[in-house]
Amino acid sequence: MPENAHVYDYVVIGGGTAGSVIASRLTENPDTTVAVIEGGPSDVGRDDVLTLRRWMGLLGGELDYDYPTTEQPRGNSHIRHSRARVLGGCSSHNTLIAFKPLPSDFDEWEAAGAEGWDAASMEAYYARLLNNIVPVDEKDRNAIARDFVDAARQATGVPRIEGFNEKPFDDGVGFFDLAYHPETNKRSSASVAYLHPVMDERPNLTILLETWAYRLELDGARAEGVHVRTKDGEEILVRARREVVLCAGAVDSPRLLLHSGIGPKADLDALGIPVVLDLPGVGENLLDHPESVIVWETHGPLPENSAMDSDAGLFVRRDPGHPGPDLMFHFYQVPFTDNPERLGYERPPHGVSMTPNIPKPKSRGRLYLESADPSVKPALDFRYFTDEDDHDGRTLVDGIRIAREIAKTEPLAGWLKREVAPGPDITGDEELSEYARKVAHTVYHPAGTCRMGAEDDELAVVDPRLRIRGLDGIRIADASVFPTMPAVNPMIGVLMVAEKAVDLIGDDAR
Ligand SMILES: Cc1cc2nc3c(=O)[nH]c(=O)nc-3n(C[C@H](O)[C@H](O)[C@H](O)COP(=O)(O)OP(=O)(O)OC[C@H]3O[C@@H](n4cnc5c(N)ncnc54)[C@H](O)[C@@H]3O)c2cc1C
């Protein structure tokens, strides 16, 4: 094979949520060549992936990298972090709840040193998104979810919201906006919206599927490309004439940097990985949205209709001085007892769940390597519920109490037979906290592990133009660059990061 067979203008590592956007946008120019290195297979023609309501079937399956967490002394040590191994990444696996980050989220990024990422400047990128973002369709609105919305409004006094993305909110309850096609329940994932329409038509776009990137190729401080292993086990070097764009997500982007010798020097030395660049922030600032669960048995089976079994939610602002909501709930039309069962609770034949969720968690975790072998999964220590003031733990306790008030309120109350978990006898702060933390789960929002910050911020991994500090020819664009966690579900934020990255790449190519 000729030496130049694997040379492209841009090499995008990860054909996931952000990577799909970037590859699609860059190849709008027919003179620009792009290779996408994607660890998973294509999602084209796969109903198990493309049908939104089948999302739970993907958890832990062959399309899930399935990362464990380290022991969590104050939380649940059994959480598995699903990360999708398929074109479209987690947008091909998730529930596609679609929230534009709140203005306070982006303004917080700017205040954290991400110059140019304020809410007003970011608005244009939301307008560019190609995904079909629509409220949960009328036919998908289950009767019990409608009654949850009414009961929550009455019990908490928050407004009912129709179209959460229309204007900023501090609190409210309603059906979510989703990135989906209601007529078929088909996903409007990043791959469906950005790659499917163009991938067979653009000779300048090469997608290397089931190909794993295991080490960056560096010449001094310049990223030249990436070493990959193809589906057939062949090891090749894919070179970038202009830039490498790292889009492997909040777990695999820092993982690849660390295996390439870019990260905290002492950690790399300890593992015998030759240090290329001492960048202490790589893997730090591991963020997530943890949530707990309260489960009720219903008097009988529920109506079947739904978009994806968690179609409505509630945002509460307990502290009037807080910018935006400080407590959130998903309402599940299923009895979500996976974690309570470990404590001895039983799954009822029919039921529903409310999941108090921490929009702005204060605990910060860390991702690190335990082996120099790139095939060994990294350690994820989220340090759940370790913040000094116990803001995170207390949020869950408040959440359970509010959930109980909602459950007592008609029209929801009439559906519910009994509280299964934690059960009506658990009422004290201490015991509620213990329960809430031990059954806590993730909604799979890891972020922040290569966070963006000002050029002189020692712990920032990328600058506000998404360039890795201290290197040339490489940017990161995915959930790992989030300086802080948005109060809402992060996927739209990731898509907006990707759209902005395309502008930044374009500016620097001129
Ligand atoms: C089950 C689940 C439900 C969720 N629900 C929602 C929701 O409803 N709303 C919401 O806003 N967010 C949700 N999220 C979170 C959201 O999907 C993610 O935050 C977002 O999609 C992350 O995008 P990303 O581009 O950072 O990474 P990803 O989309 O994960 O993309 C990374 C890509 O890189 C590939 N890759 C990784 N490492 C390598 C490597 N070394 N070599 C080659 N390829 C590699 C992967 O295969 C993947 O395709 C959910 C996530 C999950 C898993």
TrEMBL record:
Source taxon at top rank: Bacteria
A GO term for molecular function: choline dehydrogenase activity
PROSITE patterns assigned to the protein according to its UniProt record, in alphabetical order: GMC_OXRED_2
Enzyme class: oxidoreductase
Keyword Oxidoreductase: yes
Keywords for the protein's UniProt record, in alphabetical order: Oxidoreductase
Start and end residues of each Glucose-methanol-choline oxidoreductase N-terminal domain: 249-263
Enzyme Commission identifier(s): 1.1.99.1
InterPro entries linked: FAD/NAD-bd_sf, GMC_OxRdtase, GMC_OxRdtase_N, GMC_OxRtase_C
Signal peptide region: none
The keyword Oxidoreductase is annotated on this UniProt entry: yes
PANTHER family: GLUCOSE-METHANOL-CHOLINE GMC OXIDOREDUCTASE, OXIDASE (CODA), PUTATIVE (AFU_ORTHOLOGUE AFUA_8G04090)-RELATED
Family, as annotated: Belongs to the GMC oxidoreductase family.
Name of protein: Choline dehydrogenase
Species lineage: Bacteria, Bacillati, Actinomycetota, Actinomycetes, Kitasatosporales
